Amino acid sequence: MLKLRASLRAVTVAAMLALGVMAVPQAVAAGQPAVPIAKAADAATRTIAKADPQPAAAAATVCGTGYSLFRAVPLPEGTDPSLRLATLYSYENNGKGCAILDNNVGKSQYMYLHVCKVDNTGCSTDSGNFSEYAGPVYVASAVCAPVTAKMGATSSSLYINYATEYMFSCD
User: Fold this and answer.
1) Can you name the residues that pair with 11 across neighbouring β-strands?
2) Where exactly are the structural domains of the chain?
3) Rounded to whole angstroms, how far apart are CA atoms 8 and 78?
4) pLDDT tens for each residue of the chain, 171 residues long
5) Could you tell me if residue 54 is left (phi over 0), alpha (psi between -120 and 50 degrees) or otherwise beta?
6) For residue 142, what pLDDT is reported?
7) Are 161 and 150 in contact (CB under 8 A)?
8) Separation in Å, CA 7 to CA 11, 12, 104
9) Residue 171, CB half-sphere, CA atoms under 13 Å: how many?
10) In the chain, how many H helices and how many E strands?
């Protein structure tokens, strides 16, 4: 199962890179991010997507078609986006949510991503050692869905331990 997952991840990453190479130059040339951004996305998310559109677009591709970027959080929290070790992305599509924890370190790290419905039911988790990202993790009802993201050299040596109830819209 782990070999299958690793193979699928490698194929997905290769496809994302190929799509990113084709889609991003046109988007950057037009001055627009390569991923649709939700109308309710905050200014920080818009800034990250505009400054670094390729990772946001690649993560959206992993979620599937029709997803719009709702929020991007540079981690550790409070880190200058250019110095981040990871980026937590949330995407929405007709009330459904998708989260991706993007590894910005450049080498395999322990990563943990956990998303639940607002009532802490319907939880999904992805964890393990990943060089690219943890996720996608989906939630059937993204309204106020809490998200936990962790990253470190090992599961007991974390440098990111982030939890939020505002990763998806609360309308």
Assistant:
1) none
2) 2-164
3) 33
4) 333 334 434 434 344 433 343 333 333 334 444 789 999 999 999 999 998 899 899 999 999 999 999 999 999 988 887 889 999 999 999 989 999 999 999 899 999 999 988 887 789 999 999 999 999 999 888 788 889 999 999 999 999 999 998 898 886
5) alpha
6) 74
7) yes
8) 6, 9, 21
9) 8
10) 3, 8
